[in-house]
């Protein structure tokens, strides 16, 4: 039996399982939350920093003005030029400008200059602040891309449209003609109108027609009455006997 036991013990000692689970113990947590002692709470409350109250309430103190950014002199000069363009021009057309060769641009300027129309390149950063403070603020939605201005001291809308018809890189967006803001369709309708001299002649003719008709109507009655009286006198003379006075002829009749 002892031999059997010793043999069995050696077999158990030499046998190892194919899978062993190793378990490592976690570290012990030695710091737990603990409530502060009431004496320390009192000490912390007594030693808490309390900022002093200002002698004058903040609402009574003068406000600190933010430093204003002064504009550059060149920017002010450009703004004055834009104001002068809108002030001295009867026609200001806003166009969208796309990239085009310099030769085509020079040709367009040449044909526009023949009709006393100038091309002005402007920046939106310069034009928009000027328009916001003027009566042309309704033109602001047109300045959203690269724009140019076609300005003229005269209303040359028909000539401008004729030139722009051959330049697809420049698209008309709107215009201000005689302090009236017009869309592209409005500019085209304005170009179809007759000239100022022809319109004035038509207006004068229409105004002169009514007084002439009124005068002819007022003179028609007296002229008819005069003709009737002349005819009546002629008949009296033809029916009267010779030797009788006109008074006797009248009593006899």
UniProtKB/TrEMBL annotation:
Mainly localized where? mitochondrion
Q: Cross-referenced InterPro entries, in alphabetical order?
A: Ribosomal_uL10, Ribosomal_uL10-like_sf, Ribosomal_uL10_bac_type
Q: Which domain of life is it from?
A: Eukaryota
Q: Keyword Nucleus, does the record have it?
A: no
Enumerate the UniProt keywords alphabetically: Mitochondrion, Ribonucleoprotein, Ribosomal protein, Transit peptide
Name the Gene3D superfamilies on file.
Answer: 3.30.70.1730
Where is this protein found? Mitochondrion
Q: Which Pfam families does its entry note?
A: Ribosomal_L10
Name the GO cellular-component terms. Answer: mitochondrial inner membrane; mitochondrial large ribosomal subunit
Q: Give the similarity note.
A: Belongs to the universal ribosomal protein uL10 family.
Record-given protein name: Large ribosomal subunit protein uL10m
